[in-house]
Every structure is written in structure tokens, then in C-alpha cells.
Amino acid sequence: MSVKKMTARRLIASLSAVALATGVVTMGATSGANAAVEKPYTGGTLFYYTHADNFPNLDPTRMYTGRDIALFGSYLMRTLVTYKPAVGPAGTTLVADLATNTGVPTNKAKNWTFTLRPGVTWEDGSAITCADVKYGWSRTFAIDIYQEGPTYPISWLDIPTLDDGSSAYKGPYLKTGQALFDKSITCSADNRTIKFNLKRSVPDFNYYMTYLSAGPVPAKKDTGEKYDLRPFASGPYKIEKNVSGEEMVLVRNTKWSKASDPVRTPYPDEVVFKFGLNEDVRDDIIMNDSIANGVSLDSLQLANNITFFKSTNPKDAARRMNNYDPYVTYLTANNSAGRVDCLEVRKAIFFAINNKALIDLSGGLEFYGDMGDGIVKPLLGADYAPTTGNIHDPNFKIEGNPDYAKTLLAEAKTKCPATYDRATNPDKGLVYIRPDTASSKKTAVLVQAAMEKAGIVLKYQYEAQGTYNAKLEEFKKTSDLFSSGWGPDWANASTVIPELWGEGCCNYTNNKKTPEYTAFIAKVNKALVELDRKKQSAMWKELNQYGMDQYWFVRTVFGKSQQTWGSKVGGVYYWDAQGSFGFGQLYVKY
Amino acid sequence: MKIRKREKMLKYISRRLAYTLFLILFVSITVYFIFDLLPVDPARLICSKQCTPQIVEANRHKLGLDVPVLEQWWRFIQGLFSGRTYGDGEVSFSCPAPAFGYSYSRHECVTTMIGKAFPVTFSLALGAFILWISVGVSLGILAARKKGKFADRASSVFVLVGTSLPTFITGILVVLFIVLQFNLVNPLELGDWANPFTDPFGWLKAFFFPCATLALSYAATYTRFTRSNVIETSSEDYIRTARAKGLSEKVILRKHTLRAALAPIATIAGLDFAGLLGGAIITEGIFGLNGLGKMSITAVLETYDLPVIVATTLIASTFLVVMNLIVDILYAFLDPRVRQS
Amino acid sequence: MTKFLEVKNLSVGFPTPDGLVKASNNVSYSVDLGETLAIVGESGSGKSVSNLAVMGLHNPVSTKISGSAVLNLPNGPVDVISAGPEVVRRLRGKVMSMIFQDPMSALHPYYSVGDQIAEAWALYNEGSKKGGLKRAQQMLDLVGIPAADKRVNEFPHQFSGGMRQRVMIAMALVNNPLLLIADEPTTALDVTVQAQILSLLKDLQKEFNMAIILITHDLGVVAQVADRVSVMYGGQVVESATADQTFYNSIQPYTMGLLESIPRIDLTGSHRLRAIPGQPPSLINLPAGCAFAPRCSFASDVANNKCRVTEPELVEKSTGHFARCHLTVEELSVISISRAGK
To answer: Minimal CA–CA distance to A359: which of A561, A557, A554?
Structure first.
């Protein structure tokens, strides 16, 4: 299957071209999305299919991917709060689900209170209680069994930390520190109102409540490790069958009532997941629409993806959408002492890179995404604003500007001779760590060529693909440049800036205690606890700008992802908050 | 005299079995050591963003990787005889003996996984075996008998095509352009298991094309091999003697030529079959069959699932080693000259 | 008088891309019941090829055979060359049998000797498997294999070379054939065993009154058992006589050369072996004239270079003594004597 030449992008709003010209990136267009066009059908069987053998984790405490949370939050497990199932920015706002509202903060957001709606039940008809929510939260602390899920409860709940950094509470099975945990979450006498007592102010606490790990789990139905195969349902469907490598079948949960659930519209009678498909077979199904009432959970392979998305057949156009996903991929320059701790050198790298070549390598802007102007993506809504400088700088050229890079290097020669020497001396060079894959090596060649034009010397080091992400923390000590990606945990830059540039989990690029940086950290921490959302947004915007002015990241890309489905599937839209389908609204036309 | 012979035979077999057992133990230890040497740290793989050292250590402990390699192996051996228990307190669970371990990525006892995967692999291997032996050997005999004529030339084309097309090409072509093109099987049900005794048609739907695809390259090789064996045997002196005795060509072919020409083929066929019992990785993947091959490749390339890797490696090597023994005995049965040693 | 087997003008040729290989060229010989004919010659002289044609063992696709080989059977003569393959097959093993040079490879390694002999017997006799094995055991006994009752169930590789050849003989004679063709039966065996085998053949011949054709290149073997001798060279018979005539009164230069090259225990003094110089001819491009002329020490004594131009015919030079040579008996003896004197 040959890659057709890129034609005029009729079906997808030419955001990319606009973005390049003006630096403004707008919301992702959802071509082919057919939400709110026709009346939904109730009934039938909706199929999902994937190459994977199974879903790695169905246990809510262990689930951490946006897609899975969106999927099983829509079908199986309800939470106190969830995102509004709507297209566009509206879909990033919070709505009440099991709770009566989106939570009441008190004591400067150090305490949060939620009240459970009446009539919310489990699949066996028993009521969902505060004790269930509390039990669900306690399971996060059993890190000897559950290691995959988010650990915000451990960071936030007002429970002392031991000297080795772990929590004093060891989970509901070992019960060590149970009393401490019981104090941090309290239930009202009628078992309907739950109060969280946190260590510090967490203004966006209720965003975490959209995670399934923040939801209830009935203690009597907890099967530990096996809960990952069959969690107890509170949503409109329950699991009838789950066989790895074959299929998982969801049938209607007769104990779920529409009256208690303003959020979900479970149209199909049955939802079937098919596992273990060969990748070529899966792509064939999509491209030939052989399973019209089916949705692919995977992306097409690269060549097929390009062919299908460039097809001019309107029937194909109606079954695909291309949107900005939640991720920002970036190339970071290690700002630590002894590394690339020189602004001019970092700037030189930024302007020298031939972005056009890299974009072309990935099949063009259509699938690649846009050059980013920060680590906050437009999808974050209020927290995003276009920055100045970087790609908006008049000296920026998409194919690279080696001449400007040279002038920056000349400045660097006098300002930071040591770094300059390392970056330009043929016997030294900057250490650039890349994952060891074929496509990565192709990219490396292009980057190398661009750097050579500017006189920057790179030394490549390749890391095994499988462990690349696990080693990022080491790169802080060993690398000058490395790539990575980041998606915010929820629609607030508090899950981006503090993590990547502040004192959060994943700052691998900055260890200098300069006055400027200390001041920056102080501002970040202030924004973290700012209760006024508008004020907070403004602070994030300012911090994003600062980070880009420092050129800590010498390249950011606002990535895109493509979705495909069969012609008999209706109600499709892109759910920005989760970066996936709005699963709960899909139906089967017949 | 006969009793002495039987004694000798039994001594020989028991010696070989002991050797087999030793070999299997050796293979199992080797797998553990190789896995330990891999640059990948499976405990780190589940790590999402919020990865603290405690979480990694907890995962490593859960996976049983925080003890020395030999102890890991010893626990495995014990598990084979007495089962294994995981976790502690109210959420502990166990896998009954013979326990190969527990797969955390599949949330299943590995023994259960094997129990489900083996019939699939066995069906594929047996079906392919029957096809390739019947087609390959008969075509080879035909080509040898009609040497130089049209049938021989046609068979050499078949041999060329069959040996040059690898399974991953023929398989995909068959799936996309035959099975799916003509809607012979629902693509979502491709490779779904059906019990051959209770649902023979369903079993055929799942296995006909994969068996045929897999059999193709073997059949081509066996055609070539059979043909050359038959031709070579036909020129042996004892065939001339048989002809001089006055036997008809039909009897000579059947009793004299084939008996000698097919004996080595029988032994190779046994080994090829045993090799497939460990799983036909490519064919299973293409046709969506959940056999040992698919299980092992997923464990090695995607999930780094040590218990599964150990189990599939051990099973595959056990089949091969046992089949080696069987084939040696079979060959001694077929060729009296071998019986002395 | 007609003998049991009369081979007349038998020619066997193998078409090859380089030309027709004339492996045997107008060969004629005969042998009677109770008589032993030795066919002598070097490798490539055509001795095996001709007799394989008599047995009908050539591949009809790749061989051109002409001439006749008539078996004068009690119920009428049969020309095996022109008869259909099925007719000839039914004669093999029953009327005519052949044993081959290398007993190591001539027996099927997978079947016991008893089974193989019984198979030959069952082809032409009704009876049970047990009966066949009993018959096999009898034959093994007959050919002098000790403990025949046990050895009948053993496999060929459990026998020595000489024993294996005895098994071959047993198998060849199990159906009492009238003609036995033995193609170099003792070449692969050592000398002591050789004598035993030849003596066995002679005994069996007397017992069954069969005709034996013994193909060999070893004149010592010929001396022991042959009644008549046919010497072949270049695909042709060059001399045909009784054994005595051949050894004491050879009138053909090739035969004479062969005899001279045998080590002689009775000649005193140091005495050099006289080998025949040169190589046997190519059977595709036979030289014009006499096939032996290039190597013949008498060719120069023939007037007008006749040996190089005209092919001599096989002619009866004295009673029952045929030779293919342009020189007469007298001319030959004159030249020989004059040479011996020098």
C-alpha cells in the first residue's frame, strides 16, 4: 500500500497551517464525529476490538490510562465526580456522578466533602455507601499488591509519612496504621456523606475524583489480585465473561437506574470486546468496514493509517477522526549543573533543529501534530495561552535556522565557555539519549544533520525501548538531551508544570539552586494551592511562559491521535478530557 | 536370548529418560539465568508516572525477583510438585500443583493458561502434520517415479514455491485474500477455539487455513526430501536384487524402496512435529490462535512475563527431547542395523 | 545343437548427450544345462551389461537393446530380448537367477535373510509364511550356513561377506532356476572364502543340473570352474573356447596378453610380468578397425595396416575355438615363437 501524496486537507480544518503562520493553535476538529446529528438507537451489540490480549487492569485501584478510565467509567464503574460527556471544551468540565455535586472544599481546600446521591446501587442491588468509597481509597495504600495506579491519596491524605518516605498506613489487608487512615477520611452517621482531610490545600482535588481509583469498592466483594479480572459494577453494565486472548462481554446491569445517573446513556444491550487480533486483520476490518457495528481500540499501523485517513471516499471520512490527544512530546535540554546549563546553547539547539524533516518523516503535520509553544496544550482550556518567543520568534524557521543558531553560539562562547566547549568541540559533544528503535535512528540522522549545520556536536546513546521510560530519572545524571512525553492527569496545569519543571515526580532536568530557579519553584508551589481558578490559570500561563523563555525544553510537539470505527456506530465524538472516544454515548444503528 | 534383549532395551530407555530429565532441569535453570541477565527490569515496567522506589521494590517482591536466581528457580521446582501460594492474609491465592507460576499480566495460573493453549497448538500441529505428510510424501514418491516427466517438473515448481514463501507471507495472504475476502470466517472470531469432538465444523473453521498454511512449506520440503530419498534408494543394489528375484515394480516400490526411503523421513517428521508442539509462533499470531506460540511471544516481547516464558520454554524443550528419544527408538525399530548399539 | 541359452548378436547401447555408448556390440555366446561358461574381461568390456540384458534388468527408457537371447525352455523357446517385460519378469527367479558382486549392499538391510528368501519363494509357490521360512532355512542349510534355524531370522549385517554371498546364492536358487548368472560373485571376498563359494557353486550345479554363467576378470577363478570361456574386450567377444583351449592354446592377442600378465608359480628365475600397455577404448568412439589394435603387439605384423582399417570377424579357427583376429593360427604361433626365442 503506497503512501499517497498529501492532498489538500479538505476534511480536517487546516489548523496546522494556521498555527504555523500565526502560532495560534485551536481546538481539535472532530471530522466524522456524528454526535447529536441523529436520534440514537437503543439495543443491539456494540463490538470493540484490539490486538492486545486483554485490558491490563480492570481493578479501579490499578487503572491509570485515560482511555481505560473513560471506557470503564462509562460502562462499569461510577465515581463521585466525572467529566461532562460532551465534545470540545465543555467535555473538560466536572459534573456530579455518584455525588450530589462536584464537591465542597472547606478550610482552604484542605477538606473536601461529598454527599452520595440516593438510589445508587451495586450490581447486586445493595446500596453504595461512604464506607465503600473509603474502602476504595484504602486499597491504594496496599502497595505491596497494587503498584500500577495513581498514588495521589498517599501524597494528599493527612496521614503521617515514615522516615523511609512511605506512608504510615499500609492498606486494608495488613491494617497497619488503620486508625490513622480512618481519621483522614470520615463518614457521616447515615453513611452518605464523606469528608476528606488533606495534608495541604489541593484546589483541584475534585479532578482526581474522576479517577476510578477514587471511587467506591465494596469490601465484601474484594478479591484482591483477582479483582483485576472482574470488578464489581456500579455502572449500567456488568461483566458477564472475561477471557484473556478471547473476549470480554458486558451485559446490562439491571440494578442500575437512569434516575440515579444523569451522565450515562447506555444504548447497546450488549458490549463485546474482542482480544488478540492480528494487526493486519484488525486494520483490514477497519479499512473494509467488515464489522460495521465495531470500534477499533487501536490505531492503524502507520502505512494503513495514512492511506485510510487520506482516502477521499466519503464513507471512509464518516468513520474517522483526527484530534489533538492530551500528550505533549518534548525534547528536553538538561539544565542541571555541568550539563546544558547555558541559555544561549539551549536556544541555539532550539533554533537549529530541522523540524520540517522530522514532521515529514512522520507523514506530515496531519498526523504528527503541531509544533508546540509550551508544555501546556490548548486542550487544557483555561490554563493555555499562546506564548511569545520560541516558535513565535521571528528567527524561528520550520526547517531550522542554523545561522541564527551560530550567532547564539557566538554569544555562548563568551558567556558560558565550558558549556560552549562541550557543545561544539568535536572530541566532546552533548550526550543525546534516544530509544533504540529503527524509527528513532532515522530521526537521529536528521537531527544530526541539522546540528552539524549550526556547529553543534552530538553524541548519541541508545537505550532499550522497553526500559527507556523506566530510566528517565537516571538520565538526569547522564544526559544532556533526551525526549519524552507527558499527558496531564486532569484538565489542570497543576499536573504538568510542577511535575515537569517543579518539585513534582518527574523533573529530570533541573537541579540548580539559583535564586531565579528558587523563585520559580516558590511561584509554582503558590499556584498549586491557589483557590481562585481564574487566578490559578493566569499563574500557570505565566509559569509556562517563563519555562519556555528559559528554553528548558528545546522542542515541544502537540501530538495528535486518530480514531476509527464502523459505519453502523453512532454517537461518536472525541472526549478531550480523556483523550478518547466518549464511550458512554456510542450506539449501534440498525 | 530374548530376555537379555529386553533387559538391554529397558536399560537403554531408562538411561535416556534420566538424561532427558537432566536436560530439562538444565534448560529450566538456564532460562532463569538468561532472564536475570536481560537489561529489562520487569519490576519497572508497570511503573506509570508516579513511580517511587518503594513501589518498584514492592513490585519486585510481588514478582519474586528480589531473591537470588537459584532460589527463584528452586521455588519454581517446588511449585511443580506442591503448588504455589501468592500474597498473604485475606487476599492470598494459590495455584495448585503442578504450578508453573502465576502470570500477573493475565491474572491466571500459568498451568491453567497452558491447559487452554495446548489443545490449540496440538490441533494446529497435528492437522498440519497430517496434511504435509500425506501431500508431501505422496507427491515426492510420484515425482520420483515419474522422474523427468511432467509430474516431476510440476512438483519441483511446488517445492520451489513452498520453500521460498515463508509462513508469515502465505499466512497473511491467506487471511486477507481468502478467509476475509470471501467472508469465510467472521474476522472477530478468527481463531476462536471449538472442541473438535463437539463442534467439528467450528474446529475446521478455526484450523483448516492455519494448518494448510503451515503445512505448505513443510510439504514442499518433504516432497523434495522424499523424492531424492526414493530416487537414491531406487538405485541401491538391493533393489536390483529384488528385481532380479522377479518381484513386480509395485511390490518393489512398496516393500523395498519405500521401507528404506521413508525411514529417515519418519524420524525427521517426528522431530518437526515435536518442534511444532512448542507452538507455531507466526502462524498462531496471524490466524489469532491462542496457542503456546502466541503465549510465549507475548511473554517475551510484550509483557516480560517470566513464569510464562519458563513454562513455554520448558514445554517446548521437553517435547523435543522426548521426541528425540522416541524417534531414536523408532529408528532402531525400523532399521535393524542400528539395534546393535 | 542348441544350448539352453543362445545369445546371438546382442547389442546394448546407452544414448548419452555425447553419443551412443556401445556397451556391448554384437555379442554372441551360449551355455547349456550343467555347463559353466566364464565370461572374462576388464571393466567396461561389456560382460555385465550383456547379461543384465539377458535378465531384462536394464531400464527400457535409457537403453537400446537389439539382438536375441533365447532360452530354450521345455515348453518352447523364449527370446527374452523381444519378449514383453511381464513375460521376462516371470522368468526371473524361476527360470533364471542372478547374483551380484557386492553381497554387502545386495541384500535389503531392513528384512531378515529368511524373509528375503521366503519372499522369493512365495512369488512362485503357494504356502504360508511359516512354510516360506522353513524353505529358507532349508536353503541356508544347503548353502552351508551353520545353525540355519537360528540364522534364518537374522539380518544381513549380522553375516560376514562370505556368508552373505551364500545367502544370495540360497535366495537365487530357492526356486530351482535353470540358469544362474553370477556377476563377479567372489571379487569382494577374500581368497579362502572365494574358493569355498566357487566350490559350492560347482556342487549345486551338479545337484540341480543348471547352467552357470560366471562373469569375472580373474583368470584364476576361470581356471577353477569354467567349462567354456568367452573373452570380451571393448564390448565384443574376442575369443570363445573351452577352458583348456583358452589357457593352453590361446589364439587371440588380447587373451594371450592377459595370460602373460598372470603371476606364474611354475616359472623359475626372475621373470617380469608383462602388462598390456594402454587403456581400454572409449565405447562411444571406438577406433576404426580392430578395437584392440592400438594395444596389440601383433598389429604391426599384419600387412597393409589391416588391423587399423578392417574390423576382424569372430571366426571358428579350430573345432569349437573361435577368435577375432586377422592373423591365422599359424601366423600367430610363428610370431610368438620367434619372439620367445629372442
So the answer is: A557
Which of A65, A278, A287 to mutate to probe the B interface, most B CBs <10 Å? A278
B149 shares contact with chain C (CB less than 8 Å): no
Distance, C-alpha A217 to centroid of its chain: 24
The answer to whether the Cβ–Cβ distance between A246 and B90 falls below 8 Å is no
| C-beta separation of A191 from A203 below 8 A | no
Contact B247 C100 (CB under 8 A): no
Give span(s): CATH 1.10.3720.10, chain B.
116-340
Which residue of C lies nearest to B331 if distances are taken between CA atoms? C110
Place of cell 520559580: A520
Nearest to A173 among B49, B61, B91 (CB): B91
Q: Where are the domains of chain C?
A: 107-175, 252-341
CATH of domain A45-270+565-588: 3.40.190.10
- Which three cell numbers, joined as nine digits, stand for C241? 573356447
Query: How would residue A321 be classed by pLDDT, with cut points 50, 70 and 90?
Result: very high
Q: What is the gyration radius of the CA atoms in chain B, in angstroms?
A: 25
ipTM: 0.89
Residue A34 has what pLDDT?
Answer: 52
Q: Are B335 and C110 inside 8 Å of each other by CB?
A: yes
Which residue in chain C is spatially nearest to B337 when comparing CA positions?
Answer: C157
Write the residue in C57, C97, C109 that is nearest to B337 by C-beta: C109
In this structure, which amino acid lies at residue C201?
A: L
Residue-wise pLDDT for B170-208, tens only, equals 999 999 888 888 888 888 988 889 999 999 999 998 999
Give the count of alpha carbons within 13 A of C150, CB side only: 6
Minimal Cβ distance to C90: which of B246, B263, B335: B246
Query: Cβ contact (<8 Å) for A173 and B106?
Result: no
CATH number of the A325-561 domain: 3.10.105.10
Please, which contacts does B253-260 make with residues 24 or more away whose CB atoms are closer than 8 Å? B253/B141, B253/B145, B255/C119, B256/C108, B257/B230, B257/B233, B258/B141, B258/B230, B259/B334, B259/C108, B259/C110, B260/B233, B260/B236, B260/C108, B260/C109, B260/C110
Percent of chain C with pLDDT over 90: 50
- Is residue B131 within 8 Å of residue B139, measured between CB atoms? no
Return d(Cα B313, Cα B299) in angstroms, integer: 11
CB atoms within 10 A of CB C86: 8
Q: Which three cell numbers stand for residue B295?
A: 503465549
Q: Where are the alpha helices (DSSP H) in chain C?
A: 47-55, 85-89, 103-106, 113-124, 129-142, 148-151, 161-173, 191-208, 219-225, 243-248, 253-260, 306-309, 329-341
Return the number of other C-beta atoms located less than 10 Å from residue A519's C-beta: 11
At B252, the amino acid letter reads I
A chain contacts of residue B86, beta-carbon cutoff 8 Å: 225
Give domain B116-340's CATH architecture.
Orthogonal Bundle (1.10)
What end-to-end distance do the CA atoms of chain C give, in Å? 44
pLDDT per residue over C176-204, tens digit each? Answer: 999 999 999 988 888 888 888 899 999 99
> Are A466 and B45 an interchain contact pair (Cβ–Cβ within 8 Å)?
yes
For cell 602388462, what's the residue? Answer: C275
pLDDT digits (tens, 9 = 90+) for C240-299: 999 998 888 888 888 888 888 887 777 766 767 778 888 888 888 888 888 888 888 888
Q: How far is A99 from A102, CA to CA, in rounded Å?
A: 7
CB atoms within 10 A of CB C73: 12
Whether the CB-CB separation of C108 and B260 falls below 8 Å is answered with yes
The backbone torsions φ and ψ at residue B315, rounded to the nearest 5 degrees and listed phi first, read -65, -45
Check if the beta carbon of residue C13 is closer than 8 Å to that of residue C23: yes
Q: Which residues of A touch B48 (CB under 8 A)?
A: 64, 148-150
